[in-house]
Amino acid sequence: MIPSVEECFRFMKQYEMLDNIKAHSIVVEKIATIVARGLRDAGVDISLEKVTAGALMHDIGKTICFNTGGDHAAVGEEICLQHRLDEIAEIVGEHVRLKSYAPDQTISEKEIIYYADKRVNHDAVVGLEERLQYLFIRYGKNEEYRLQLIKENIDLCKEVEKKLFTKLNFRPEELAGMI
Predict the structure, then answer these.
(1) 146 vs 62, 72, 138, 139, CA distance in Å?
(2) pLDDT digit string, tens, across residues 131-151
(3) Which of 33, 62, 64, 133 gets the most CB atoms within 10 Å of its CB?
(4) What is the rounded CA–CA span in Å between residue 11 and residue 25?
């Protein structure tokens, strides 16, 4: 099942999503929807419902993980599965790091959410380099291994960006002004 916008907000309340995470999720949804609509206009088969719900729910496990220290993407995927939200569970589970990526395959909703999430710091739309610097400071902890993983993930996101924007009639730099 794909939850409606109203159901997504009920889940946010049920799982006590913090206001700043909710604000972030709303901006991620706006970016993801702009990209998804552009792709649909270009003839790509994308579910706007999955994109909207996946973006709103992508951080559903984050508040819980502040207390437990768990993997918020995995916790979010489990929450989706518990509520029979199977059609967005994988999107939520892979929004931090894609488990598999094929540049030559059809664009997927999970790639759109993955990309949109990397373009939003808190509730501001930023470029991937600015996001990289934020992630280094916030999560890198001056540990070379962590810094390398973050860089590799942003490099992958740059590949996803190329894949998405070869089909779009606007540039990544234009996204912030399109909200």
Answers:
(1) 19, 17, 11, 7
(2) 888 888 888 777 888 888 888
(3) 62
(4) 13
In tens, the pLDDT along 97-143 reads: 999 888 889 999 999 999 999 999 999 999 988 988 888 888 877 78
Architecture per CATH, 5-178: Orthogonal Bundle (1.10)
Domains of the chain, residue spans: 5-178
Distance CA 34, CA 47 (A): 13
- The answer to whether the beta carbons of residues 58 and 95 sit under 8 Å apart is yes
